[in-house]
Q: What sequence folds into this?
């Protein structure tokens, strides 16, 4: 979406342009004093300079269809073009941008070699979200041989900051972690996909190890119109545990999202693909699509309602393949300028060919972000999963029920940007405590993880 800052700068630019062009039009009409309408046009210029746009529009509309303007003389055509242009300016001043565009298009047709109307029409189209039309006018302007150096520099500056330009963001991260039970790596936040937790190996004994985590996140986005945009993100991550190479894991997570304004909020549709490798071999692939609607319920309260369908495919055991449906509601409340509270409730329902892998999972998460000062953000979250499986496990005579809790504490310190090339650098220090209780003791486990992670944004 276009920012208020951009809207303000655009309107100022249009008003500034009207004064410059108005002066030009006034000078032209002073030369053509024989035209009986010149006084009305000059008066309209004065009204626009005084920001009396309604009066200016009224005065110009009263002479818009004057019969003398139908004469095929240079004076009449110049006056008609001036009226079109000035109407474009006063309509813009009133916020009637479609009407302003209509009048400015007439000026461009009548005076194809005059740069100022092209520029104003390009700015109006840009403001309305007609980016292709705006870029076409900017290109036409830059192709004019007699364009002044000052105006050329201004146009190039505007196009460089075009709201519909492709925006890129790359974040590199790396650090170390200490994990009390790497056999339960799927519970780690770093490789949780859609909040779904996995068991990556058959060994049940805890292995305490330290590891190194490296990766990057790349994002790209483009504004399609005033009300819609597309974005894409890819995340690559790799964690190695030294002597325990069988527990090394990597994953790739790719998604593309289409967002558009609707009613008093914004909806999105997001296809997604992810793949996980353990010990150098493919373990799991995910395909899915998620849609949702985001809206502000008040100045401080934002709600996000999502619905997703995901297909989890295991390479070593097709009986574990899961088709999952997951509705979710998230609330974000800004209690103070530097304190945000958030919560989410979700129901995840997975269906597998073998009932012992089918489940229903009620998920509750609450947390807070607190900015202690400008460079330091403190975060605390608590998540609880209540999971009930469908089939009785052979040899145990029971249907498995698990209760999982995750507590995370994180401190993120912004080191600032070191150059124009490096936008930001942060350091994250934190820890997570995981606990899984089950009515079948074999599936009970505890886990603690500490990490230090450096992030560099380019």
A:
């Amino acid at each position: 979406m276009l920012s208020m800052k951009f809207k303000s700068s655009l309107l100022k630019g249009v008003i500034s342009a009207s004064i410059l062009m108005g002066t030009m039009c006034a000078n032209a009409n002073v030369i053509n004093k024989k035209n009986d309408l010149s006084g009305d046009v000059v008066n309209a210029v004065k009204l626009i300079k005084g920001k009396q746009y309604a009066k200016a529009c009224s005065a110009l509309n009263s002479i818009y269809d004057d019969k003398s303007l139908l004469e095929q003389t240079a004076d009449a055509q110049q006056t008609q073009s001036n009226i079109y242009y000035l109407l474009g300016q006063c309509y813009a001043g009133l916020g009637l941008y479609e009407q302003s565009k209509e009048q400015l298009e007439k000026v461009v047709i009548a005076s194809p070699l005059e740069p100022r109307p092209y520029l104003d029409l390009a700015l109006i189209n840009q403001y309305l979200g007609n980016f292709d039309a705006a870029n076409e006018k900017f290109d036409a302007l830059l192709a004019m041989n007699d364009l002044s150096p000052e105006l050329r520099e201004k146009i190039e500056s505007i196009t460089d900051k075009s709201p519909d330009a492709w925006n890129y963001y790359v974040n590199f991260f790396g650090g170390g972690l200490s994990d009390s039970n790497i056999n339960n790596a799927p519970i780690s936040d770093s490789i949780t996909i859609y909040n779904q937790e996995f068991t990556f190996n058959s060994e049940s004994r805890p292995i305490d190890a330290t590891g190194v985590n490296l990766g990057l996140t790349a994002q790209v986005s483009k504004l399609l119109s005033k009300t819609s945009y597309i974005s894409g993100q890819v995340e690559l991550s790799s964690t190695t545990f030294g002597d325990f190479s069988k527990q090394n894991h990597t994953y790739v997570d790719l998604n593309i999202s289409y967002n558009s304004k609707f009613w008093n909020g914004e909806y999105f549709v997001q296809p997604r693909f992810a793949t996980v490798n353990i010990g150098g071999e493919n373990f799991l692939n995910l395909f899915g699509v998620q849609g949702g609607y985001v809206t502000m319920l008040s100045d401080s309260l934002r709600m996000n309602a999502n619905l997703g369908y995901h297909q989890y495919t295991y390479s070593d055991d097709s009986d574990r393949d899961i088709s999952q449906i997951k509705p979710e509601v998230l609330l974000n409340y800004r209690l103070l300028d530097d304190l945000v509270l958030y919560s989410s409730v979700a129901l995840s329902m997975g269906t597998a060919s073998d009932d012992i892998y089918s489940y229903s999972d009620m998920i509750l998460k609450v947390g807070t972000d607190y900015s202690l000062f400008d460079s330091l953000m403190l975060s605390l979250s608590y998540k609880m999963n209540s999971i009930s499986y469908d089939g009785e496990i052979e040899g145990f005579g029971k249907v498995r029920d698990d209760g999982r809790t995750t507590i995370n504490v994180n401190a993120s310190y912004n080191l600032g940007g070191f150059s124009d090339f490096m936008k930001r650098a942060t350091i994250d220090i934190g820890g997570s405590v995981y606990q899984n209780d089950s009515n079948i003791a074999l599936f009970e486990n505890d886990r603690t993880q500490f990490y230090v992670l450096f992030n560099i944004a380019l």
The helical segments are 4-31, 38-49, 53-62, 74-93, 97-110, 115-128, 131-142, 149-160. Residues 1-35, 185-194, 196-203 have pLDDT under 50 and may be disordered.
